[in-house]
């Protein structure tokens, strides 16, 4: 397969109903008249007495006693009984524990209370109020949940009653939430009452060192965001990771390609430390490069390298990078496939392809992730994020394509060998069989061409293929136990080996299948 390198306002919260403020205490009642004494005429009922009280807005029940919160019995304060002939006074009331009003907001009582019902917020989908994951909200036509109901009057209520009720609810919620403490905070300026997470509770959270959070915390300090700029000012952003304590950083070749000929390189750590860097060596065919920090710090911690040969499909993966310039981004997924043949390029006119037998992952990889580490569940590097299959654009190129769950990483066993060669000699070393093969898409195998590059012989005289008896027109179908369906697949598989390795090649000639052992040769550098 061929792929490319990576290289409406929210409506305001409706006003919450106010909490009744303290009212004057009921007038003291005159003593009951003695027996036989004439009774005074009853006074006229005040306009605000309960017998003449208007029905609460929004359908609140008249004097319905709210149920206690969380099933706990609410203490009842018996109202003093006055003689039937005594004047009746309005007692200040307080909402019950389950009716503090939306968001627990309070404000002074005024003549305009109750307010009109809150307007339904406007959404892009026409007001359906869809919740997360497409779930519906409170229902069509409802604003921010259920409509507000006026709290029923309760004798002896004060503002402190609301605070106590909310505090009880908070304590119960804290107990259900695993012991996380909550504190009650009140904004005196706005009169609102809020519940905030306690710092003490947050500091008590202990994460497993092998959790995603634990792995990310250890790995992030050893990753860098790389900025490469060419001599004419063009460039891009990628990622790299610390390879050793000497300041070597491993990344993709296409990340640093702009700075190869006299350009500028910088590497920035998550703590903000920024260093100039220089290219030690780069391998276009492998798409691997090594840069070195100038004046590196003494506290560098290299990432642990894993064993990509032992990776299994379904293993968890963690990718770190700077997608679209968003440094220190962590995404997760699994190994979707192994030994995926990938031929990639950065879509530039003079770009040459890179070939790999890649680890495929569905961890989100986007432009800017290039060169970053692909980690296993323990935090060991198993690959270098290098390419994606997307619906358009290119990773590391000018397009703004994004992840569709098909990302590819260079196996770390191969990348480690290449990086060590680049640090040692500054040049890559490639294994080869000494034969030119067709790069056309095919499903039948890798066919040895009739003629090589620039008119050269298709089978190098005295080379590995020649010694093994391979000829132009032969179709290679297997390398060891790997099925070969095309020329790029064969190249990618050969490059997972080192010069001098012995491999078994299965090929077809004249309709018959043959098998031969080949000792791989070597090629130094990207040319030839």
From TrEMBL:
Parts of the chain that traverse the membrane: 162-185
GO BP term, pick one: proteolysis
Keywords: Hydrolase, Membrane, Protease, Transmembrane, Transmembrane helix
Biased composition annotated in UniProt, kind: Pro residues: 11-48
Gene3D superfamilies: 2.30.42.10, 2.40.10.120
Molecular function GO labels: serine-type endopeptidase activity
InterPro entries recorded: Chloro_Bact_Ser_Proteases (IPR051201), PDZ (IPR001478), PDZ_sf (IPR036034), Peptidase_S1_PA (IPR009003), Peptidase_S1C (IPR001940)
Biased composition (Low complexity): 82-93
UniProt domain PDZ: residue ranges: 431-511
Residues covered by region (Disordered): 1-156, 186-207
Feature: compositional bias, Polar residues: 190-203
Compositional bias per record (Gly residues), positions renumbered to this chain: 126-144
Source taxon at top rank: Bacteria
Protein name, UniProt field: PDZ domain-containing protein
Higher taxonomy: Bacteria, Bacillati, Actinomycetota, Actinomycetes, Kitasatosporales
């Amino acid at each position: 397969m061929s792929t490319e390198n990576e290289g409406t306002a929210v409506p305001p919260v409706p006003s919450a109903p106010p909490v009744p403020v303290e009212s004057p205490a009921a007038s003291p009642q005159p003593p009951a008249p003695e027996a036989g004494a004439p009774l005074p005429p009853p006074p006229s009922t005040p306009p605000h007495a309960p017998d003449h009280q208007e029905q609460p807005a929004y359908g609140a029940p008249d004097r319905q006693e709210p149920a206690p919160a969380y099933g706990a019995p609410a203490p009842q304060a018996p109202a003093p009984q006055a003689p039937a002939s005594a004047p009746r006074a309005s007692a200040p009331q307080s909402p019950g524990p389950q009716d503090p009003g939306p968001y627990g907001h309070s404000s002074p009582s005024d003549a305009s209370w109750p307010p009109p019902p809150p307007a339904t917020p406007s959404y892009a989908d026409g007001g359906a109020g869809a919740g997360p994951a497409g779930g519906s909200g409170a229902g069509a036509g409802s604003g921010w949940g259920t409509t507000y109901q006026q709290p029923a009057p309760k004798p002896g209520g004060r503002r402190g009653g609301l605070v106590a009720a909310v505090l009880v609810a908070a304590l119960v919620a804290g107990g259900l939430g695993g012991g996380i403490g909550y504190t009650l905070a009140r904004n005196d300026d706005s009169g609102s009452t809020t519940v905030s997470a306690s710092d003490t509770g947050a500091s008590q959270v202990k994460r497993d060192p092998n959790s995603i959070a634990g792995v990310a915390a250890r790995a992030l300090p050893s990753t860098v965001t790389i900025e490469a700029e060419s001599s004419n000012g063009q460039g891009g952003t990628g990622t790299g990771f610390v390879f050793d304590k000497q300041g070597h950083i491993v990344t993709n070749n296409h990340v640093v390609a702009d700075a190869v000929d006299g350009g500028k390189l910088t590497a920035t750590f998550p703590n903000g430390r920024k260093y100039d860097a220089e290219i030690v060596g780069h391998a276009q065919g492998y798409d691997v490069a090594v840069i070195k920090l100038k004046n590196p710090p003494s506290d560098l911690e290299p990432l642990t390298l894993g064993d990509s040969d032992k990776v299994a499909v379904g293993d968890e993966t963690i990718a770190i990078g700077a997608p679209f310039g968003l440094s220190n981004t962590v995404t997760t997924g699994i190994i979707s496939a192994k030994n995926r043949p990938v031929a990639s390029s950065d879509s530039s006119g003079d770009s040459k392809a890179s070939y790999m037998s890649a680890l495929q992952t569905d961890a989100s990889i986007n432009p800017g992730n290039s060169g970053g580490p692909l980690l296993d569940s323990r935090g060991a590097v198993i690959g270098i994020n290098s390419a994606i299959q997307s619906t358009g654009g290119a990773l590391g190129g000018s397009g703004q394509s994004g992840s569709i769950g098909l990302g590819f990483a260079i196996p770390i066993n191969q990348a480690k060998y290449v990086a060590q060669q680049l640090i040692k000699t500054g040049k890559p070393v490639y294994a080869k069989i000494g034969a030119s093969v067709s790069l056309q898409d095919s499903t039948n195998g890798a066919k040895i061409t009739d003629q090589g590059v620039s008119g050269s012989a298709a089978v190098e005289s005295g080379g590995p293929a020649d010694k093994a008896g391979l000829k132009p027109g032969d179709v290679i179908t297997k390398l060891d136990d790997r099925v070969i369906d095309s020329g790029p697949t064969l190249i990618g598989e050969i490059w997972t080996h080192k010069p001098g390795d012995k491999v078994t090649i299965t090929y077809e000639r004249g309709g018959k299948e043959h098998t031969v052992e080949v000792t791989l040769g070597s090629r130094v550098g990207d040319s030839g």
